[in-house]
Amino acid sequence: MANDFVTRMEQDAKIGSFFKDSNPERLRKMLAEQFCAELSGPCTYTGQTMQQSHARFEIRREHFNRLVEILQDTMNAHSVPFWAQNKLLAKLAPMARDVMHNAERTGLPVAPLAPPPKPE
Ligand code: HEM
Fold first, then answer.
1. Does 119 map to a domain?
2. In the chain, how many domains are there?
3. Whose Cα sits closest to atom 5 in ligand 1?
4. Which of 41, 89, 99, 108 is close enough to 36 for a disulfide, judged by CB 3.0 to 4.6 Å?
5. What is the Å distance from ligand 1's center to 68 Cα?
6. Digit-coded pLDDT (tens) for 53-99
7. Ligand 1 pocket, residue 6 CB under 6 Å
């Protein structure tokens, strides 16, 4: 699932350019670890903090929202159960403030995420 998610982000018109100089193998591995750890699976996240890994990008709210949309599409395509989708999105939402560029962090509170998709 994490592999497909990264592929979809790399190919996305809005946020694909952020990934052009990244190391795709590492990103896939780190995301798989992180998702597993966040969903209380038997794994440990060994990557950088969200602030460290995103500090050099000018990530804004619109980019974050697009990433969430792509993640929802990916999870639907992989038939991830609705409860697990919500659980992962709820874990990722508070990370928005660490991932976004400084200018976007000044206004508090951080706007809520778009609501998750309705189950079929
Ligand atoms: C909750 C939201 C997000 C999470 C959980 C997340 C997670 C991660 C993780 C685990 C890594 C790997 C860190 C490492 O290599 O140690 C990473 C790297 C990266 N993220 Fe995110 N990310 C998020 C949002 C975003 C957004 C919104 C963008 C851009 C639109 C983005 C762009 C990138 C890029 C380009 C890299 C690669 C950096 C590199 O190769 O050095 N991320 N992210």
1. no
2. 1
3. 92
4. 41
5. 12
6. 998 898 999 999 999 999 999 999 999 999 999 999 999 999 998 99
7. no
Does the C-beta of 8 come closer than 6 Å to ligand 1?
Answer: no
Closest atom of ligand 1 to 99 CA is: 24
Q: Which residue carries 């874990």 as its tokens?
A: 91
Amino acid (one-letter) located at 63: H
Reduce the DSSP state of residue 62 to 3 states and report it.
helix
Domain CATH code at residue 61:
1.10.490.10
Helix H segments across 1-120?
2-10, 24-38, 50-54, 61-77, 82-92, 96-99, 102-105
- Evaluate whether residue 9 is within a structural domain: yes
Spacing, Cα 53 to ligand 1 middle (Å): 6
pTM for the structure as a whole: 0.86
Q: Which domain holds residue 50?
A: 2-105
Q: What is the pLDDT of residue 114?
A: 64
Structure tokens at 51: 């602030």
